[in-house]
Amino acid sequence: xxxxxxxxxxxxxxxxxxxxxxxxxxxxxxxxxxxxxxxxxxxxxxxxxxxxxxxxxxxxxxxxxxxxxxxxxxxxxxxxxxxxxxxxxxxxxxxxxxxxxxxxxxxxxxxxxxxxxxxxxxxxxxxxxxxxxxxxxxxxxxxxxxxxxxxxxxxxxxxxxxxxxxxxxxxxxxxxxxxxxxxxxxxxxxxxxxxxxxxxxxxxxxxxxxxxxxxxxxxxxxxxxxxxxxxxxxxxxxxxxxxxxxxxxxxxxxxxxxxxxxxxxxxxxxxxxxxxxxxxxxxxxxxxxxxxxxxxxxxxxxxxxxxxxxxxxxxxxxxxxxxxxxxxxxx
Length: 331
Hints:
The protein is an alpha/beta fold.
């Protein structure tokens, strides 16, 4: 495998003296050799090869990643929604008088039909109840405590262990080659910032996500704090992703990685830039190690983006075929 990697780099015109450091070892050991892995290696090699025709200065090597379904799993429900449901149950246990009120009643009864009725009014109530009316510090503590004790219902792993080992390697590899790696996700920005640095090596300032209104105020003792209001400010999904990239990053990515139709506009925006570009889509095809889903899934639906990706020659990563392992410590 090492020999094939080195020969591929030499075939691309990289001499043994001028080749980047990753030619000596495999930087993506959890990826199977194939078109997807080679596309990544070739792209990173050419944009980081100083003096080469496709060289991109390090300050412009921006890589953006969706989170749910791209960096960690998202089935059977988005993990942030699972957090909200678990938090509703915790609050109801502490305050029994809440059990007869919505959304507590439906959550405790596991009545997803009721929660989803009226355009998801109950789910929205659950999110508002568990994400607002508190300081940003208090919210971060609650999320951190949940991550410490909660376990995925079928995999029985901590939620922050439901990350994809091949993607953790890719993030690390990109940073070693002068890239800045960003999360650009529809998930809540303050939710993701609790674990992003420890889990992915992505610091809080490089996390772009959906956000609610946060206001500054003084607490009862005159100390400054930030308070989360029950009002949406920015939705970082679909066409909101390129807008968020422009607002919070200020540079068009040269590499973008997604897994659903919610990432389509980010991929289009990235691919449409000048110079070398790499747009990648994870296709969830592994029903044994993870889940197999795409066009008809209510979670992480991949339909239009899959068609456009294939038509435009984007890199489609087949999870079953392209990844040796999915989760850390698992085959």
